[in-house]
Amino acid sequence: MSAERLTKARRRQPNANSDDAPLILVKKERSALRIDALDRKAIALGLTPGMTLADARARAPHLAVAQADADADERLMLRLAAFCEQFTPLVALDPPCGIMLDATGCAHLFGGEAAMRACVLQAMARLSFTGCAAVAGTPDAARALARFGAEGVTPPGEDEIFTRPLPIAALEAPRETSVALTRAGLTTLGDLADRSSAALTARFGAETMRRLTRILGREDARITPLRSLPECMVERRFAEPFLDLAAIENVLRPLIAEAMGILEKRGEGGRAFEARFFRTDGAVAALNFETGAPSRNVEALLRLFHLKADSLADPLDPGFGFDVIRFCVLRAETLAQSQIGFERQSAQESDVADLVDRLAARFGRERVLRFAAHETHDPVRAASYVDAAASPSSRPTLWEKPEPGEPPLRPLFLFDPPQPIETMAETPDGPPMHFKWRRVRHMIARAEGPERIAPEWWRNAVGRERRTRDYYRLEDREGHRFWVFREGLYESETAAPRWFLHGLFA
After folding, report:
1. If residue 269 lies in a helix (H) or strand (E), which one and from where to where?
2. Looking at the domain assignment, is residue 226 inside a domain?
């Protein structure tokens, strides 16, 4: 149990008059308060996890007792896992109190696996944590060696040699299974491995044998990291903690340039980015930002970083300093080189994309929207709001364009919902001669239509509520243009169709 957890627990509990009192954490189990965790002093008194609080007090009346908090422990383990990402991006939790690191391809950065293990333990010691660490070829072998065997580094391919002497408890099987194996005279994993696997599987189940083969290194199961591996990652480590936030740009610029150089060799550009700051006290701060299109523009990415940092409710705080600053490209897409024409069309499009990125970084992606077209004949569903910085569809739907010299088919401004109007028409199925809207009567000079639009029949709920619409494009004597419709067909759908104004043309 870590010193930090003990210190926090000691502050919470009221009956510890002295820091010298043995401390235990209890939780309610089987209608009794039982020990969940305890410090070294309590262990020296012969107390063990699972013992009732009454028995513990009988042995040590001056115990300091605090309530175990599983949620707080989980949050603590997640913070520690985030802190360990400075050693490798592949980090996973190993309940109840372990962290698994995949050192593949990372150990050489620290001088080898033994040096990397020492760095991890030293970092934990600075945070007032003690722990056991082992390096092996498989996650299960490393866990078993750290908890039940000798700490250290297992040479490649020798997991079975080092794990065979481990006790049966290293299987972490159910209690009845462990008792049965011990009574059968099988005290070590080597004894179990020498027996027939078919007979053991039939007696103790496939899960026990699968666990054994993984601990012995015969079967490998990779860890599931808390975060997916980024497309590209560069970092800078500091011999002394970095404290000068004013000079943060001098660190980030070369990191971003290095990452963009890697993407350029791949013919890609970044879409999602993350700047991660590892503090000496174990805290980790992360700033995420995105671009609307693949980008390798270093200065533009720096501007987005500053905009994101300035918009934080909790400003970036170096505390006692940063040990590591890392820049990651979380998502990348193909980015082909484009030729800028004489009319600077590509440059204008780039300027718009840069503006969208800056607005999204300052105000949030959910507040910067654009219109997107949908393949439907229903004008109500023909357009919607989408994230302006989102990736365009692989098959984008183009807006319908009018014929050259012809007025637009749809107005730019639509009412939601359409507004009712009073009309007068020469024939029941004809266009209106005039209509009254907002107490103003408009005399029609020109009319074009109808354009009959039926509801989408496969949308049952919508189809029951809506009727067929006959749309007209109207122009009054003052030159104002309107888009109106008559809802419902005479006799077949309704005896009294109603008229509505749906939109205004520019």
Report:
1. strand 268-279
2. no
Half-sphere exposure (Cβ direction) of 430: Cα atoms closer than 13 Å: 9
Write down the pTM of the prediction. 0.68
- Considering its fold, how many domains does the chain have in total? 4
Within this chain, do residues 269 and 160 fall inside the same structural domain, yes or no?
Answer: no
User: In this structure, are 22 and 87 located in the same domain?
Assistant: no
d(CA 253, CA 248): 9
Q: Partners of 373 in the beta sheet? A: 383
DSSP per-residue letters across 324-377: EEEEEEEEEEE-------TT-HHHHHHHHHHHHHHHHHHH-GGG-EEEEE-S-S
pLDDT, tens digit, 9 for 90 and up, residues 92-144: 999 888 999 999 888 988 999 999 999 999 999 988 888 889 999 999 999 99
- Pair (12, 35) in one structural domain: yes
In the block, tokens 């944590």 appear at 129
How far the first Cα of the chain sits from its last, in Å, is: 71
Interior/surface letters 17-46, b for 16+ CB within 10 angstroms, e for the rest: eeeebbbbbbeeeeeebbbbbbbebbeeee
Q: Pick from 334, 354, 384: which residue ends a domain?
A: 334
Which domain range does residue 167 map to?
Answer: 78-215
The tokens for 235 are 């970092």
Same domain for 62 and 89, yes or no, is: no
One-letter amino acid identity for 66? A
Find the CATH number of the domain harbouring 18.
3.40.1170.60
The Cα–Cα gap between 23 and 215 comes to 34
> Does residue 86 share a domain with residue 63?
no
Q: Which tens digit of pLDDT belongs to each residue from 276-293?
A: 999 998 899 999 998 888
Which pairing describes strands 369-373 and 413-425: parallel, antiparallel, or unpaired? unpaired
